[in-house]
Fold:
Amino acid sequence: KDIFCLRVDRMVDSYRKVSINNLELKVPGAPLHQRIQLRIIPDKESGLSEVRFWYKDEFLGSQKVRNSDLNLVQF
Structure:
């Protein structure tokens, strides 16, 4: 599932949140002020993307987000 995904690195803030394209996502259990990797799996049919959070090969959790909120590039 994580092989064919979009990958983005983001810094976790003091509130354990990361932001991508002005959308804030809460990441419970993430280390403060560290870079984590977001692996985004878009699904065109449902209009949702699954955003999976990883820190040093450790899975932190995932969230479902509307594709329109992420403002991803359209192909």
